Amino acid sequence: MSARSFAFFDLDHTLLPFDTQALFCNFVLRREPWRVLLHALFVPVALARACGLASTATAKRAFLSYLRGMPRERLAKYAHEFAEVCVPKWAYPDLRAEVLRHKHQGRTLVLNTASPDFYAHEIARTLGFDHCIATRFEIGDPFPGMPRLVTGNNKHEAKIVAMEADVPGVADMNEKERANCWSYSDSAADLPLLEYAGFAVLVHPSKSLAAIGNQRDWTILHPARPYRTKLGDMFRVVLQMFGLHPE
Fold first, then answer.
1. Quick one: which H or E segment has residue 24?
2. Each residue of 173-189: pLDDT tens digit?
3. Which of 18, 111, 125, 129 is the most exposed place for a label (fewest CB within 10 A)?
4. What is the pTM of this model?
């Protein structure tokens, strides 16, 4: 493929059927169960977020309180093991096949996610991506109670800004080259990412997003997942937050 071409993938509920923040929490708590007690630091922020008194970014920072005091070296070890052990088990086979297809067709693979960078980059490496854009945290050594965001939450238009700044060749593409790119996501929050490429693929979209996809002739995928409903997904999140979910 002579012209530049990219394939952009969201992560949570797109490549995997879960929120990887909860899944990584599950992975850590199964090794250090006592850390579930640190969720007490997150509860007040979660309640404030539910009442509209705290931002999504603040809630994301507070959720990571369960990692408080962890040495940087141990966190890196867990992130590597999580990507090697859990991600291949839970990743949708259909989406992994799409990743391989684009790789074989010569496209540059970009994982573009709102998930924390300290494990997202390990996931990108495991799944064979060329680049990873993720929410960047100042994690320190040891891990702080409320890690600071470096550049803000990587969602909505922020994904495009970060991608154009950090992935060589993206910002320089012409209209013809972008028409030969692909984007994958499950979420309406990723409409900027989906609209950025010539081909968009939706994974288990909501009814409203599916309606947009049908109007624009986007591909819609429904790979098999380990729950049937949104309630089933939420139940899995609860189990993961307490370290009770299978790896």
1. helix 20-29
2. 999 999 999 999 999 99
3. 125
4. 0.95
